[in-house]
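Before relying on records like the one below, remember that each one covers exactly one chain. Contacts with other chains, cofactors or solvent are not represented anywhere in the record.
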Amino acid sequence: MIRNFFKVAYRNLLRNKGFSFINITGLAIGMAATMLILLWIQDELSYDQFHQNKDRIYEVWNHVPMDGEIRSWNGVSSLLAGTLEKDLPEVERAVRVTYDNYLLTAGDKKVMKSANIVDTGFLQIFTFPMLKGDPFTALNDRHSIVLTEKTAKILFGTEEALGKIVKVDNKDNFTVTGILKDLPTNSRFNFDYLLPRSYTKYREGTDLGWHDNSTPTYVLLKPNTSYAAVEAKIKHLKQRYDDEAKRINWELGIYPLSRWRLYSSFSNGVEDNGGRSTFIRLFSIIAGFILLIACINFMNLSTARSEKRAKEVGIRKSVGAQKSSLIGQFIGESVFLAFLAGIAAVIVVQISLPAFNQLTGKKLFLHFGNMYTWLGLAGFILFTGVLAGSYPAFFLSSFQPVKVLKGTFKKTNALITPRKALVVVQFTFAILLIICTIIVKQQIDYARNRNTGYNKDHLVYHFMTGDIAKNYALIKNELLASGIATSVTKTNSPLTERWSDGWGQDWEGKDPNYNPSFDRYLCDEGLGVTAGLQFVQGRDFDLKQYPTDSTGLIINESALKILKFKDPIGKTVSDLGVDWHIVGIIKDFILTNPYEPTNPMLICGAKSRFMTFNVMQIKLNGNNSTSRNLDKTAAIFRKYNPDYPFDIKFVDQAYASKFESEKLQGQLAGLFAGLTIFISCLGLFGLATYVAENRVKEIGIRKILGASVAGITTLLSKDFVKLVIVSFLLAAPVAWWGMHKWLQGYTYRVNIEWWVFALAAFLSVTIALLTVSYQSIRAAIANPVKSLRAE
């Protein structure tokens, strides 16, 4: 029986090569797109799930009342880890993790690599397989270093790295005490080596103890420990040691590893179910709809050939075939076609993965050496075949033999048929994606074109590695004297990043119950001219003319609104033990998120005991070519900092990177919208074929009675236009609601304009007409004699 099923399926495949090709193509593209999305989703869901103790690992978060709401973030006091181990018996280990980049030197090899600076228990909490060394003791010595396998190969080649000496930051020698297997890509941690925290000191000056809240801290709970019990104990722990925390009711919480990647988003102290989980849900829906649309396309093409299969069904039923065997036959045929489409889909996925990985920034692959991959593919193909073949199987097997053999089984055209409904579903989703893609692009362009408040042109920065800090004055003078730069300054962070913020400032007239948070920034002098900041009052720092500018303060307009000074120049703001006097007011500029309001900002003079200079900002001479500027700048840096690589970064590129998430959403939505439209067009083509087959004699009669080709083409096409219009009427309100909700997440956002929907409607109708025109015109120009000679 099974052999007969496959024989019939194979003969039908060869007999209808055109239909079979379209069927397999539509299914293959839909299956390939779904596979790519599922691979992406699987990678997202697998983040940090490889740790053996994953169910007992938590991150500590702050939940602090501030500005009338509760702010949450995951950097705590560096003193908290030891306190947790001491005060909470449920905590097995607690570790701090900070990040930095250092120059590693081994023999004549010099490379800049990223470090995680960790407590000794890091490798006991997190499961990063160690190829050589003991994870329990590898970081016990303050001059020990643990390398990843890739870093060890870079430094030592094929030589044994364990026990070798590595110089860190051109200062101290470290002994390699462990080699880790290269980190998986689906982890929040991305380091090249580990250094013990016992070696390093607080990088930004004096450790402020309980007042510092910037150290990521992780805890491993003991087995069978109640999460709720620990959460209740840790809630007010900081208040025991910090009077300020007690005064403002500072709370702590622990957050499980299982939610780090997909959530980690809080609104007013409560997890808001946002973050990447929204992205996952959205693309899960897209994957389901793309597969469904591909199956709908298969159904339409299969039922379009119903007349050709009807007599086969009638004869088989007449000789005793049961409906169940016919259903099995047709589903078997669809599974066979799905199998062929699945093979094609895997080939398409393999070809597309490099480009898809580049687009998404991942390293996805099909693991053919894994049995579960083959089981998953088999299940996916079987599910697709059954789903695609279900409606045609029940539709074809329901024909009554008497009516079929008399030729009276066909029904007159109904207003609503399953086939029309399926096409409406296809185009509804396609139009929905078209509208969403347009609005996402609008929002990205809107934020990108927002006035940044500074001039990005020819503005670059370089981290102050090695001897740059020591030779800063020499480098600055040579850059200016050579005409390569027009202005140079140094700051604590790049112009596109916030490395410090906080509250607790004091000023004249402050309400004691008001505790706003300010962004902090540090510069020596000349930031205004270097970055092109716009002063509305006062002036820039100038240490030569005004030496007291080392305790000067420049504030933005948002800060002035909070401070409420009528005459701000000369007024004092106390922060972190320093009385800063205001010398200038600047217009707001975007330091962090271009989609959000600008935060109040304090730009402090050089005499900060909390922040240090980490970045050299350079305004290159726009009269020179970029290549000449970079070549000359590189030569100067190598002259004064020869042991470190020259790594200049452009501010405009750093700013553009802020749009990567939204850009990815838009690109993926556009890509899948295109695929959905293509597959939907195949579905329309199938319906056009079905209609042309059913109305061939009507068309012949109309032509004999004088109907024109244009009139018949219009007659056949208008039904499809109606379906697309119905699809648009269904898609438009859903798209408006969905994008309205999405845009609410941005303070600076576009308005949803009517023309977006008009454009989507025009595109969808145009695409539909182009798709069905071939079949319509072909039917209209057919010789009526051939269609009527059997009458």
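Confidence is low (pLDDT under 50) at residues 202-206.
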